[in-house]
Structure formats: structure tokens, C-alpha cells
């Protein structure tokens, strides 16, 4: 599972807003330069970004293994033709480049996720998106982060309890129903208790925003983002 | 009391409850992605994620159902591993081949909610007829797969036939199963929340 | 001071609180006891305006609760059953900061309050821990710290001992004793009187939405006699089986 891990790497010491800028600029550049030369240059950038977060390309690749069928199917399906010569390698060129581009962007995202705690992203969003929308997104992210493991454990317990009583013998629709109903009841029950606690603690639209501060290192990040952004419009 | 309370703009009671529900539903969506069942008609296992989209529209309605899906996407982008396969990060929304499915969730939940509640204001979804529920979910499924295929075409350069073969054909039969399950859940009185 | 005057609250046709009047003084340790469904939780949820009265009124320090929700919620901190669903952040310090942030305080003041609240519940060391890594008793104390960070004059705890084992229960009781000693008014709502009876200044028992017993000396023989008629757990009874921790 791709998640934040504490470390002292270069990327860990950057402000989340800087890292988001770099990420967006990288995506723009990758879509603007879908050529072998362009992607080669971006591979180097992606490798540097991964390294700056203390990740190796191989371990990043492992995080996205569930996507590999999609990434491989594109070029394969495109290369096949109905009738001789059956396989046209040239047809696979475009989809192969596109698959590789997707992989590069995922690498950069992996570097971000690995080096940025959820509360920092939340802070970045809350300080960037104004007003109630920003507070809704910020609080929402924080609450999902808090309650996701609890609900996952709730669902696991339900399934274990069902399996212990041979529930696996029942038709699949019924098992889906029972699992979902248990999950919904847990989620709604928790939400009602949570909303009471939120109100008791003066849940407000205009709280003190989380602290974030740009440091000297962030100038380096800005420079990288600026170069990438410039290159994507050239 | 030393604290000045003049500037505090409290979130209203109803809204606080809706935010809590939307967030918990988003978290449940993430958890649903980790629960897989064998697919009776295909080797690809069924996760409950799309069922979460259906139920968000039906139970939370078009506005808060969609809001809850937005929180799901925001939390995933911020690094909570709620996307399929434990994925996370903004890249998943920007360049991941499956981004179309992700972006479709708020739209599909809003559409399903609007059909079931026949508008923006909430009605008792238990009173909705079965054809209405099924129709809403079929429409939602069409949205999800249309967006999903468009995403594959955009990120991987697929043609429409390839996108259908890779991104829809293998998964569609299982959606019928989830629609049936969702109708069963709405019809049973086992869910305590109104 | 919390003043409740002729308060009535209905859920549909059920009268949960029936014409109740009660005053909670600053600095006092009050027990509100009664069986499940006696109306005690509903009563205290009016103390800071989490519920709206059907009739009657509640005021905190002379101001009607409905006229200033923020002031009421700052003055009356509240902790509910099952802290798991009350903690809003993934880490201890961030959770305790939630209330003060809502008040729009400066970062320095928030940090000061978080430190003070965590030290009041003996959890200074845990500020950066994840709440999922805490024990049940520690989570309960984090929830108390979250309420304390608002610097309330009254701290209300609704069934705070549910699901806690004996050491956790003692750690919570111990913190409540010291908060009370430092001048905070503590209100504990419970159907389980073990250990807590001796701490209280005063006890109020509820049945069917009404106050049926008020005793100014909670641990007196007369209080015990009147309480023994209610469906509450008195200190002499054997320990109940542990509640379902979920």
C-alpha cells in the first residue's frame, strides 16, 4: 500500500505546495512531450524525484502492479490486427509511449505520497482553496484518513464472522448484501456519534488554518517546477 | 471566560451531520475497494467500490452523495490509500489509466441520487420503485464506464473498441450483481439510517 | 454555572426529559445516575445546546444556550461514550487542537492549550502518536484533553467508563479527581457507580425522564438506600462483564 513514511529525505523537507506544483508541472510536460526523446528526458527527472523521496524505481513499480495489465494491454491489443500479418509492431508505438508516460507520472506521485503526510496535503488544500469549500475538503480529508482504517477493520470482522459460520456457502449476492449492510450500519453509526462530537467541539467554517511555511529549499522546487512548466508550453 | 467567541462561524447542525456522513461514506468507499468476492461469470474478482457509488447516490442523495465521492477523490489524492489496489496520490487523478472511473464517481452518484430522489431535495429512498432504482443504477453504470473508457482512450491512446474490450466487457456482468445487491439492501430494513 | 429550568424534551411521542429543573455550580462534582433510557444523556446534551428544548430553558453563566452556542460549548466541555468515534484527527496533538482551532486562536495559544490539556491527562509523551495506536483508556483521556483544550468551566462525561478495563477506568477516575481538585466542575453521567460515588459532591438520580433522588452527600447511607431502588450498579455489586469493545 502506497503511503507516507517518515524520513529526512530532500522531498520530505519541502513544503507540500511546492511538491504539488512540481507534480502538476511534470504532468503537463509529460502530456506535451509524448515522444521518445521527451519521455527519456522526463524519465531522468522522474528518477531524480523518486531518489529525492528515498524511493527506488523498482519499489515504486511494485506499488502500481495492479495497473500493469492495463499498461501492457494497450500496446498488445493495438499491435494485433485481424488478418495477416496479424502483428503490426508499429501500431503499438503510440500506446506504448502513452503507457510509459502514465507510469512516469505514477512514479512522481509515488514520490509525493511517500514524502508527504496526509495532514500536510490537507493543510496545503485548506490554505489554497478559499472559504467553505477549502474547509469542507480539508476536514473531509482528515476525517476519511481517520476513519478509513476503522471501517476497513469493521468490514474484515464482518467477513470473518460470516466465514466462521460458513457464510461463504451462500450465494454471492447475499454475501455482498450482508457485508455492505454491516459496513453501512457501522459507517452511519460512527457518523452520527462523530457529528455530535464535532458540534460539541465548536466545528466551525473559519478555524485557525494549519501552519505551513516555505523554506529555502523550496526555491529549488520552484525552479524545477518552472522549468517543467516552461518546457511544456514550448 | 477569556475566549472571545464573536468571530466563530459554527457549521450548522444539519450540515455537520451531512459532512460527517459524507466523510464516513467516503471512507467506506475506500474500505469497499479492499473487499473482493469471486465473480461468477469472469475471472476478474468483484470489489464493492461501484456498489458504494450506487449507495451514495441512493442514501445520501444527489448533493451529499456527490460530495462524499468528491471527498473520496480528495482523500485519495492527499495520500489516503483508498483508490483501487491501495493506490493514492494526485497522479491517480491526472494520468492513471483508471482516472476516468474515478472522476465518474461524483457524476454517477449525483445522477443516481437525482433520479431516485426525483430532484435535489431528499425523499425517502425506500419508497422508490424497483424499476426506478434499477434504471438509476443502470444510468450510473453507463456514466461510470463511459468515463472509464474515455480515460483509457485519453491516457493510453486506446481506440473505442479496445477501451471497451479492456475496460468494460470483463467488468459489466458483475455490475448487474451489484445492482441486484443494492436493490436488496434498499428493500431490507437492516440499514438503520434514514 | 449551568441552570436548567422546567426542561422537557420529546422524541416523537416519548418524553425523554419531563419538566426537569437543576443547577450545576461551578467547581462541583455531580453524578447523574439512572438506568438506560432514564433520560440522563438527553438531559446533559441540553447543557451546551446539542439538543433544542421542547419547553423550558437552559442557561450557562446567565446566558441562554440558544443565544450563544459557542459560549455554551466553550464553557461546557463534553465527552461521549466510545472515544473512537469522537477523535477527528489521526494524531493525538492534532486532535486536541481541533477545538481551539475552531475558536480561531493563534497558533501559539493553540500549542499552549494542547500542551496544558495533554499534561492534565498525563499524556504529554503521546502528542505525536497516532490515535489508533492508543489503548482504550488513553483514547478516553485524549477525548477529555480535547474538551479541556477549550478551557471549560464544566466537563460533562457521558458514560465514560463503558468498555474500559479496570486500570484504564482508574486512570480516568484519577484524572477526574485531579481536575476537580483544580477547580473544574465535573459532571459524570453513568449507570455504574463503582469508585465514582466517593468522588462526587452531589448525586442526582433519574427515572422515566424525571429527577427522583437528589442527595447532597453522594456517599451517605441515605443516598445508597435511595439509589439501591433504581436499576443502577452500586459499588458493592460484582464487576460486570466487559462491554463489547466495538
TrEMBL record, chain A:
Main location: membrane
Lineage top rank: taxon: Archaea
Keywords: Cell membrane, Membrane, Transmembrane, Transmembrane helix
CDD domains assigned to the protein according to its UniProt record, in alphabetical order: EcfT
A Pfam family: CbiQ
Transmembrane segments: 39-60, 66-89, 96-113, 133-152
Membrane topology: Multi-pass membrane protein
Subcellular location: Membrane
InterPro entries: ABC/ECF_trnsptr_transmembrane, ECF_transporter_component
Cellular-component GO terms for this entry: plasma membrane
Record flagged with keyword Protein biosynthesis: no
UniProt name for this protein: Cobalt ABC transporter permease
Protein's organism: Haloprofundus marisrubri
Lineage of the species this protein comes from: Archaea, Methanobacteriati, Methanobacteriota, Stenosarchaea group, Halobacteria
From TrEMBL, chain B:
Subcellular location per the Swiss-Prot or TrEMBL entry: Cell membrane
Alphabetized Gene3D superfamilies for the sequence: 1.10.1760.20
Pfam families, A to Z: BioY
TM annotation in the entry: 19-38, 44-64, 71-95, 101-120, 132-158, 164-186
MF annotations from Gene Ontology: biotin transmembrane transporter activity
PANTHER family: BIOTIN TRANSPORTER BIOY
Protein family according to the UniProt entry: Belongs to the BioY family.
Protein name: Biotin biosynthesis protein BioY
Organism: Haloprofundus marisrubri
TrEMBL record, chain C:
SMART domains reported for this sequence: AAA
Signal peptide annotation: none
Family: Belongs to the ABC transporter superfamily.
Polar residues bias locations: 220-229
Protein name: ABC transporter ATP-binding protein
PROSITE patterns (alphabetical): ABC_TRANSPORTER_2
Keywords: ATP-binding, Cell membrane, Membrane, Nucleotide-binding, Translocase, Transport
Function statement: Probably part of an ABC transporter complex. Responsible for energy coupling to the transport system.
Database matches in InterPro entries: AAA+_ATPase, ABC_transporter-like_ATP-bd, ABC_transpr_CbiO/EcfA_su, ECF_ABC_transporter_ATP-bd, P-loop_NTPase
UniProt biased composition (Basic and acidic residues): 234-246
Lineage: Archaea, Methanobacteriati, Methanobacteriota, Stenosarchaea group, Halobacteria
Membrane topology qualifier: Peripheral membrane protein
Pfam families linked to this entry: ABC_tran (PF00005)
ABC transporter domain ranges (all copies): 2-233
GO MF terms, alphabetically ordered: ATP binding; ATP hydrolysis activity; ATPase-coupled transmembrane transporter activity
Keyword Ubl conjugation: no
One CC-aspect GO term: ATP-binding cassette (ABC) transporter complex
Amino acid at each position: 500500500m502506497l503511503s507516507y513514511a517518515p524520513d529526512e529525505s530532500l522531498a520530505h523537507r519541502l513544503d507540500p505546495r511546492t511538491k504539488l506544483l512540481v507534480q502538476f508541472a511534470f504532468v503537463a510536460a509529460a502530456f506535451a512531450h509524448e515522444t521518445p526523446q521527451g519521455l527519456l528526458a522526463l524519465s531522468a527527472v522522474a528518477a531524480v524525484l523518486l531518489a529525492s523521496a528515498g524511493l527506488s524505481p523498482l519499489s515504486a513499480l511494485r506499488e502500481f502492479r495492479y495497473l500493469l495489465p492495463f499498461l501492457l494491454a494497450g500496446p498488445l491489443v493495438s499491435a494485433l490486427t485481424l488478418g495477416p500479418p496479424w502483428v503490426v509492431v508499429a501500431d503499438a508505438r503510440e500506446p506504448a509511449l502513452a503507457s510509459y508516460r502514465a507510469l512516469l507520472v505514477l512514479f512522481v506521485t509515488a514520490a509525493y505520497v511517500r514524502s508527504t503526510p496526509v495532514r500536510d496535503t490537507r493543510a496545503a488544500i485548506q490554505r489554497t482553496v478559499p472559504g467553505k469549500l477549502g474547509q469542507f475538503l480539508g476536514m473531509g480529508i482528515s476525517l476519511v484518513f481517520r476513519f478509513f482504517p476503522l471501517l476497513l477493520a469493521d468490514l474484515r470482522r464482518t467477513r470473518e464472522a460470516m466465514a466462521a459460520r460458513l457464510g461463504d456457502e451462500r450465494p454471492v449476492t447475499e454475501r455482498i448484501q450482508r457485508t455492505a449492510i454491516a459496513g453501512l450500519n457501522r459507517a452511519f453509526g460512527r457518523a452520527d456519534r462523530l457529528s455530535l462530537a464535532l458540534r460539541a467541539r465548536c466545528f466551525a467554517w473559519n478555524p485557525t488554518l494549519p501552519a505551513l511555511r516555505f523554506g529555502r529549499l523550496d526555491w529549488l522546487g520552484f525552479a524545477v517546477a518552472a522549468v517543467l512548466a516552461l518546457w511544456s508550453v514550448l | 471566560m477569556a475566549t472571545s467567541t464573536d468571530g466563530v462561524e459554527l457549521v450548522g447542525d444539519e450540515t455537520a451531520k451531512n459532512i460527517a456522513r459524507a466523510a464516513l461514506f467516503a471512507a467506506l468507499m475506500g474500505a469497499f475497494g479492499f473487499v473482493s468476492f469471486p465473480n461468477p461469470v469472469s475471472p476478474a474478482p468483484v470489489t464493492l467500490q461501484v456498489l458504494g457509488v450506487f449507495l451514495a447516490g441512493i442514501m445520501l442523495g444527489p448533493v451529499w452523495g456527490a460530495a462524499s465521492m468528491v471527498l473520496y477523490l480528495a482523500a485519495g489524492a492527499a495520500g489516503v490509500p483508498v483508490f483501487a489496489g491501495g493506490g493514492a496520490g494526485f497522479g491517480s487523478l491526472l494520468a492513471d489509466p483508471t482516472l476516468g472511473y474515478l472522476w465518474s464517481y461524483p457524476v454517477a452518484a449525483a445522477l443516481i441520487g437525482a433520479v431516485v430522489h426525483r430532484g435535489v431535495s431528499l425523499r425517502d429512498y425506500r419508497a422508490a420503485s424497483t424499476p426506478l432504482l434499477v434504471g438509476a443504477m443502470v444510468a450510473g453504470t453507463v456514466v461510470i464506464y463511459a468515463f472509464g473508457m474515455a480515460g483509457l482512450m485519453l491516457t493510453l491512446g486506446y481506440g473505442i473498441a479496445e477501451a471497451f474490450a479492456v475496460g468494460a466487457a470483463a467488468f459489466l456482468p458483475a455490475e448487474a450483481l451489484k445492482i441486484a445487491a443494492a436493490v436488496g439492501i434498499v428493500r431490507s430494513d437492516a440499514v438503520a439510517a434514514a | 454555572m449551568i441552570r436548567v429550568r422546567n426542561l422537557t424534551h420529546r422524541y416523537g411521542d416519548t418524553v425523554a426529559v419531563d419538566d426537569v429543573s437543576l443547577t450545576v455550580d461551578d467547581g462541583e462534582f455531580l453524578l447523574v445516575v439512572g438506568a438506560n433510557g432514564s433520560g440522563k444523556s438527553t438531559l446533559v446534551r441540553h447543557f451546551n445546546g446539542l439538543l433544542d428544548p421542547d419547553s423550558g430553558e437552559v442557561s450557562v453563566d446567565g446566558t441562554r444556550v440558544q443565544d450563544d452556542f459557542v459560549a455554551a460549548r466553550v464553557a461546557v466541555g463534553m465527552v461521549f461514550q466510545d472515544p473512537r468515534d469522537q477523535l477527528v484527527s489521526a494524531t493525538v496533538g492534532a486532535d486536541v487542537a481541533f477545538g481551539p482551532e475552531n475558536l480561531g486562536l493563534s497558533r501559539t495559544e493553540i500549542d499552549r492549550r494542547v500542551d496544558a490539556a495533554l499534561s492534565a491527562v498525563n499524556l504529554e509523551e503521546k502528542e505525536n502518536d497516532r490515535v489508533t495506536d492508543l489503548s482504550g483508556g488513553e483514547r478516553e483521556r485524549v477525548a477529555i484533553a480535547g474538551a479541556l483544550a477549550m478551557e471549560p468551566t464544566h466537563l460533562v462525561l457521558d458514560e465514560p467508563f463503558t468498555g474500559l478495563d479496570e486500570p484504564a477506568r482508574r486512570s480516568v477516575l484519577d484524572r477526574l479527581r485531579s481536575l476537580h481538585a483544580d477547580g473544574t466542575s465535573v459532571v459524570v453521567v453513568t449507570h455504574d457507580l463503582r469508585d465514582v460515588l466517593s468522588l462526587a459532591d452531589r448525586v442526582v438520580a433519574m427515572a422515566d425522564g424525571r429527577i427522583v433522588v437528589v442527595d447532597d452527600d453522594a456517599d451517605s447511607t441515605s443516598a445508597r438506600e435511595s439509589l439501591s431502588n433504581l436499576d443502577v450498579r452500586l459499588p458493592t455489586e460484582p464487576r460486570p462483564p466487559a462491554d463489547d469493545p466495538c
